[in-house]
Fold this protein.
Amino acid sequence: MALQFVEKETGGVTVLELSGRVTLGEESNQLRTKIKELLAQGKKRLVLDLGNIGYIDSAGLGTLVAGYTSAQSQGAGMKLANLTKRFREQLNITKLVTVFEVFNSVAEAVTSFGA
């Protein structure tokens, strides 16, 4: 299944709801491009809703790290929300849980940015 995006604005925070798979190739490229577009539009507070991601491979994880790094270098923040149990385990195994701010819900992630 191809990667799909639904973009929403909530209280000055851009929420990007992802569904499908994030794997090597087209899906990773789509995600990388979308994050760069949002940053280029001056979006400084990003939340990625990953609740509908069925699978993410090492290339997908690399894309998330690259997006996070790009956001940081531009003074923006990127947080993850709604992780599946399997994806949460992947972040723990790879120690990426220490890199990303991870929240149980989109609402918690949005609130964490403050006013």
